[in-house]
Specification:
Helices cover 27% and strands 23% of the residues. With 180 residues, it is α+β, with helices and mostly antiparallel strands. The chain has one domain. The chain binds iron/sulfur cluster (SF4) (2 copies). Residues 20-26, 51, 60, 62, 129-130, 132, 134-135 line the site of one iron/sulfur cluster.
Amino acid sequence: MATKTATKLVKEIRVDISKCTGCRACEMACSAYHAKPRYSSINPARSRIRVVSSEHNDEYVPIRSTDYTPSECNGRRTYVIEGKEYSDCSFCGSPCPSRDLFFEPDSGLPLKCDMCESIPEIIPMCVQACGESALTYHKYDVMVDAKDQERRGGIEIGLENLVNQYGVDAILEGLKRMQK
Ligand code: SF4
Ligand code: SF4
């Protein structure tokens, strides 16, 4: 029997490191958007995007934070891209014990990019702030298994109701507490 398919919306931010100048406007915009109250402060240490840089080598890699990992990885490789050498860590968005990136400075809790999810929807702030088009926002549909999509749809409707009732920030804080 043929598998029924449905479409799922994918949102992503693509990075072109050759265009990044290391201006760090993306860091400032992200931290301002996530400040409490919103836009009340600018502090790149609270940003969910950080520019990993090596200035003498003219290397700038904007990385968005992903899931927390409790242990450092071993076997870090290096890559040469257009004559510049990068390490695995240059492209890794995990808050991990080997570096200070992506930990909220007051609480020490790991930070994770939430794609600036809000109602109404906005173009992510880091993308808006990047005048070099090093960051670009893309939305497109992909084909998925219909049954799987139905299950996920139920979860998303439940989450949407919670967000409508309590707000995105409160739900994210609650999820962080549950992960501890
Ligand atoms: S998408 Fe939003 S939360 Fe994620 S890094 Fe960009 S500004 Fe920060
Ligand atoms: S705003 Fe754009 S050019 Fe500036 S550091 Fe961020 S990604 Fe790079």
